[in-house]
Amino acid sequence: MLRLRRYRYYVFFAAILVFLLFRVARNSEQWESVSASFGPIRAPRKSLSKTGSSAGNDEPYNGMGSEDAGLPQQILDNTRNQYPTHGPGETLVNPDVADEEPEKSARPATIEEDQVLAYDQDGATKVTVPPVIDIPDKSVGKGAKTTNVHWEKPIENFPVPESEIIALPTGKPNKIPTIQYPFKKESAEAKEKRELRQDKVRNEMERAWAGYMTYAKGHDELSPVTKKFRDPFCGWAATLVDSLDTLWIMGMVEEFEDALLEVEKIDFTTSTRTEIPVFETTIRYLGGLIAAYDVSGGKKGKYDILLDKAIELAEILMGVFDTPNRMPILYYNWKPPYSSQPKRATTGGSVAELGSLAMEFTRLAQITKEDKYYDAVARITDAFYEWQQRGTSISGIFPERVDLSGCNQTAQNELEAARSAQSKDEADDASDDTELDSGKDEKKASLYKRGGNELKLNRQKNPATGQMDVIVEKSSHALPECVSQGLTSGGWGSEQYSMGGSQDSTYEYFPKQWLLLGGLEPKYKELHLETIKAVKKWLLFKPMVPDDRDILFSGKVTTRGEPEADANTDYEVTHLTCFIGGMFGMGGRIFDIPADVEMAERLTDGCVWAYESTATGIMPEYAHVATCADPENCSWNQTAYYQQLDPQYNSRDTQIKNYYKRKAKVAAEKLEKEAAERVKAAELAATKDKIAELKKTNLEYSDSLTEKAKDLDDEYTSLQKRAPTSFAKDDDEDDEDSVPASGFKVTVTGTQTPLVPSEDSEEWKDPSRPFTHEEFVANKIERENLPPGFVGVNSKSYILRPEAIESVWYMYRITGDKKWQDKGWKMFQSIVKYTATEVGSSAIGNVLDTETTQNNEMESFWTAETLKYFYLLYSDPDSISLDDWVLNTEAHPFKRPTAAFGK
Ligand SMILES: *[C@@H]1O[C@H](CO)[C@@H](O)[C@H](O)[C@H]1NC(C)=O
Ligand SMILES: *[C@@H]1O[C@H](CO)[C@@H](O)[C@H](O)[C@H]1NC(C)=O
Ligand SMILES: *[C@@H]1O[C@H](CO)[C@@H](O)[C@H](O)[C@H]1NC(C)=O
Fold it and tell me: Is 640 in the pocket of ligand 3 (CB under 6 A)?
């Protein structure tokens, strides 16, 4: 659950900026803005079919002719092999592509077999390409744009030799302790209450589903207020695919089968987006298809199309692993010929995006018995495992940004420096005896020469490891060489560690993968146990809350590499992190650590508290809470809370003192100045009178005197203008004795009135006075609508996220305590109250305000996850029992193994 989607606002705006610059620079493609009310027109597939043999299959399936309730498989089957793959030497030329990707297609578009690089046995990276800047797609939030380019299966540049494919572990699943509480038969009364609640949840699903099918069918998301749609996830009907298993679980079989007619129409080989977001696509689409297949009966069910579509998508996604170290490309430019060019994984990916592909590909490998899908993700796990063993700054867990390129730039620089020193030495040697050795010199130099079209393998000592590495010399298609390394931190200097967005689901998947593999791969258990250890030591904290409720949260630590000395803890509360209760609880059960289950309850209740604290009864997206100095003895202390709300509390009194000092000084200066002006004005008046008199008598009249009089007149006029009004009138008065009494009164400006009247009411007539500590705090609480215990709410929205109810559901299934059903019910009612729209549910802008606005967004996880967890909280505990199923990070249930598997 990065989830990138949950993070996308930051990424999105940054990326938009980069993207705009990028666009302006290349200025070749029109940025089309198509109204959201127009659907994408999918180009007929034959447009690229070189064989032209698509015999009638371009007709969209019309939904008829499936009376036998089986889906028309032949349509799918016929389309399977419709996209010709390229043989060696075939030129891939597509004018559209050439136009759109000028710099990318600058590389020759031919692939010759002898230029295909060998896969490196030790998984190490010997060749590289400059890091690709991921440019998120321009069509996010818009209606789709048509394209007639289709993905074509590329020839792998770095294939894994058949003999080295990592196979699924084989054998009989281990005996794993049960996760669920041994529920007893419930009373009729309890059943009635439960089913009543369950019906209410299903009503929400029915409305949202109908809204989606009416206004957004075939698109990614319904816009639930305007009744339009958006296509942020490649336009492959994200909500529809993501919701399939929910429909099935809720018994909406007719809707499920209707939806399959749409599934059949999805064409994963083309998209309006240039880059496929691999993480989102895997957890939502691939996970959704596989789970729908599993829950509807799998092989024994009658919906093979689900598996067919999952395979179709997986085959495309497999292209992302075609890198020298087999670490995935996270944003896959699927368009030929770019898709087939050699590339490296990024130097700056997020932990979540890298580690959250495991379950989906593993389950697909189990269902299809195709080890290649497992190999793809097992290599990532091995890389994480090796990194955990090698050590990170916070032992056990990984920094948010990861360099997965496999290239050690430091070592590479050293290597190159050494080489140039060496060739300089040789050049010096050569110049000593020019005649004799020039031939030899040339030969040596050519060894290191770049370019040339041959593929050369040389052995070279790796200064980092002391081992001999195979260096692949460049061919015109090769990537620049590099010294291999495992996963490392992708940050510059400071690293962030948390269980929140961009990191979360990698950790979530460790125990879940262990379950999915029947406990046969011990690495996952170790990864999980080390994670939990680190979380307890570094991240967990106890907030200080009004009724001393015993709850926990998991925060974020920033370090520059020496956490014991420089760790900086951020006491954050994020909705995304709320999944952690479920993780602790499930892990505690399957690895038999009761203390972790207890902690899970406190972690889950933390999020429930956050829901209960706000005006709407809904937790905000991202906030900070007050902490206790001593978590062992933590009781509510208003003084301490106020101090955390006002980190400047110590200096407030000084600020006020200084303010009064300054004010007195200003007043004194003003008074002095005005007094001086009065004196001057009086003198002027006298002089003026004198001049007038002189003029009158005509005595000593002269030009110079006239000039002087003029100057004096001017000065007098300007003085008058500057003087306070009360003073201007003095012109004709005999005022030698007048005292400047009222002219310097401080003018009161500004409109802000402090919210809390002080006892000293005189002080309150001066709103420009700085706040006292108490005033500051009262004002902050009022202005920001802060619930007690919160010190700041950084993001007040709620976007229909599932993580809190997810953990509540786990707690109910694990402990059997009905209090969790009741807590969940309050959450449900609040969410419905503020998010429901006529045709679905909408994200809201401000959970701290009962007058909040609806944002017109309904992410697919609302129907895929949030409503599913609510529904399962009130279902019979045998429905999706945690002892039979394991759910991916998008709440898609995969069947746990019951019998021996593997080959
Ligand atoms: C990268 O290379 C440097 C210099 O050779 C070495 O100190 C460092 O340990 C290497 N890093 C990794 C992760 O292998
Ligand atoms: C807990 O804190 C209170 C107030 O600070 C103090 O009086 C009490 O002695 C503390 N108890 C323990 C067990 O430390
Ligand atoms: C409450 O907090 C303040 C400020 O940290 C501290 O001085 C005081 O002793 C605390 N009161 C109790 C009862 O612990």
Answer: yes
